[in-house]
Amino acid sequence: MARCVEDVAIVLAALVGHDSLDSTTIDDKIELSLDEEIDLSKLKVGIPDEYQCEGMSQEVIDTWRSVADMLSNMGSRVSRVSLPNTKHSISCYSVLNCCEVSSNFSCYDGIEFGFRADTTGHTVEEVYSKSRHEAFSDTVKGRIFAGNYFLLRENYENYFNRALKVRRLIANDFHTVFEKQNIDLLLTPVTLTEAPLHSLWIQKDNRQQVSTEDYCTQPVNMAGLPAITIPCKLSNNGLPIGLQLIGKKLDDFRLLSIAKKLENILHFPVLLFEDTNTGV
């Protein structure tokens, strides 16, 4: 999260690049500056059919349509595209995330790594159990249990391997749109509604929260593509409604350049921090 697109670009420029101590980093050469002269009229913008889903508010749909029309009026070629495996992304994420959580959190034993509960005079097994019981929330515990189940030898093929295959299908959908249909940018909603009241949100369990509000953002994570959310307007209740821009793989700074251009056009208010010493 940041105040504006330029702040995101500054942080990304500091983070990008290979780190010999981090096996998840890459050494690809990436342009690290924003293109201030980027021409929106030359863009091919895709509008995924599958992202207008059940439960999406009319205000979100209207905002999506309004920005798409604005881009079209500016000369961008806006067209409908299909990402048919979008509907499977939440299920795919749920399996892979639980497997990753169960694997990554296995080292939290309260002795060599992680939080240690007050277990003076207890056995090693009790230290493990009490420390993990106190450190992990119910959601984390549930994901660890589920991940262990998915990774059992008798379940591995039906859950973990199948989820990996679905993730590949999701990634292939994006590849088809970007590389074969020559789309430069995808424009989608972020959430189905404006921010809900906390009192209503906490009535849902974690699975319900994820299945509703993550519908539009999970596919891009499964595909490993850059995406950014920019606020576009205020709802009738005075809450921000944003849209998601999705770019090609490793095209992060071009995506940020487009986002900054849109940010300047939409004129959504930017938060400024006041120096308490100077009042500025």
UniProtKB/TrEMBL annotation:
Domain Amidase: 1-256
GO biological process terms on file: glutaminyl-tRNAGln biosynthesis via transamidation; mitochondrial translation
GO cellular component, one term: mitochondrion
Listed Pfam families: Amidase
GO MF annotations in UniProt: glutaminyl-tRNA synthase (glutamine-hydrolyzing) activity
Protein name as annotated: Amidase domain-containing protein
Species in which this protein is naturally found: Medioppia subpectinata
Organism lineage: Eukaryota, Metazoa, Ecdysozoa, Arthropoda, Chelicerata
